[in-house]
Amino acid sequence: EEITMHLEDEGAIDAHGQWISEIPIEEYGIPEGVRDVVGRRLDRLGDNANAVLEVAAVIGSTFSIDVAGSIAGLDEGQIDEVVTAVVSAGIFEEGTGPEEFVFTHALIRQTLYDGLATRRRTRLHRGVGEVFESRGSHPGVVLHHWLHANDPTRALAATVAAAASAQGASAGIDVLAYLELALDLWDDATDPEGTVGSSHTELVLRVLDSYSDFGDQRGQAISLVEAEIVRVSPTDTTTLSLLRSALAGQYWVKGRNADALAAHLEALRLIPDDSPSEELVQVLGSYAAHLMLAGDLDEAIRIGERALAVANALGIAHDTADISRAGAARSRAVGALATAYGNRGDIDTSDRYFDELRQEAQNNGDSRSLLLGYTNQGTVYGVTGELTKYLQMSDEGAAVAAELGRDRWQAILLTNAFEALFGLSRWDEAEDRLRAVPRTDTRDKPELARVMSVLILAAERGDGEVADGAWEELARADISDLDPEIRGPSWAARLSQHRWGGDLVAGYDVALEALPLLDDANCWSAAALLAGSAIELVADALESGAGDATWLEAARSWHDMFIRNNPPALFSAELRATATADLARAGGENDPELWRKAVRAWGGQGYYEAKARWRLAQALAATDPAHADIGPLLDSAAVVADRLRARPLSEAIHKARP
Known about the structure:
The protein is mainly alpha-helical. Among the domains are: 1-116, Arc Repressor Mutant, subunit A (Orthogonal Bundle); 483-588; 590-658. The chain has 34 helices and three strands. It is elongated and about 105 Å long.
């Protein structure tokens, strides 16, 4: 009993007494005398029994006596004699299935296994692997034995088969683990392409697809593609084009948008475009998707429609089942078109493309296209201000992603649901969505979006402790080298913290640093939110005497940038109304009518409407401290602020009361 407790404490056996460690038993400090006792018990059973037990130990804690006996070279009568003797000796007992037996203690099985000479252990694993393979056993079980038989070629075949089996069972993280193992085995295998029926590059691309679904836990995606580019012949421009396109995707996931654009352009340069090809569909489809995400809607539509034209010329249509990489690329192009048209306000065309995307997902059983539809159509609802639909689409998609085990998609969709709930002023629910986001140690966009969402909520609630924790996470991730689009929310949160905290000079410096970068990078959606906050900060500063004329000029330039770009973004019109009122306030004309327009623009949006009511009350008080509307405006704003636990706004409302 003491030995069992010791092994459990060390993690060598589980609660059921089964051996779960890869470390040899002698390294756990089991006294030699105990192992001798087990050995003597086994010796008394005879040669036939020990031969069967050795095979059984190789198979595992649970095994088929028929398989173990046949590999040991015994006939049925001899197997029956062994079963009688070994069960009587308490070495193993009957299991739940026919011909199934289980070792009574992990110590017995592991003593047998560790006592095998390396050569015999390898030979027995090979024998077990051959039997299991011939019987059609699960490829993951077969793989275990080929690995221990030191047969990389058959292990590679079993690994790829295990990945396909896991894909069919929607065991996504297992798919990734098997594919990564296949890459590790590739160079040691004989004729790996013939063994698995695909090239090394195709395997790399499958691994990258899995990273998109489940995250790049090793942080090796970019180096993996770069190594594959070196591996491929310089004359194979088509394959190099596909790899450059894949590299662009990984750059984008890591927030390196400028590098992603350069990689896309290089992919287009390399791919032959004088005739339709599946590879051209892949490159164009991926490029269209990233153009859409970067906000270059016209170019996204142009490239997306070109991708569809090439796909149609090849017979890759939305109403046919096609699970090839080209079919998936066509789906990305359709998703980009649907989203780009939606963000431009052409909802009819957008809906038509989203319907096409859903049909493709249904025909192909393509979970990625299905999740793409949930993500992108939800985003369109957000941009057009239909937050309830945005929330519904994001929650439904997150549930599907969770069911499919697609962690990174689930993270994206839950963060989108947070954005919808934040805009709906349902902050406690928004916080719940963030808590449900699957975490990862990798610095990818979904994880950064989660951390920045935490920051945004903490800034408006005045929760310094939570904000400090989020800033520490960003510091560990080191986002200084990321593109402005990715850093935008962090700048907005920092500026908001400084503004509410009264450190207006520091907030102004954030705006001076960030807004030119966002404008130069055409990150107009992020710039819209930051510009609105920056203009508000300048107005606060000038009212308090903290700023000067250069601050006012900066605010005017930011307002002009906002109007010039007219970003298709969530709350764009509402933010513009508030920015216009704040700019007038910065110029010394705190106009109640402009604030009434802002209140109407934000109608029904909770927090931001409450802020506009507070500002309207301030504007009225500046000319008539006894105005009858001041009290009701502040009361209604206070109800919202208190419900949301928006402490900085609650305190500001309290200070504004006569």
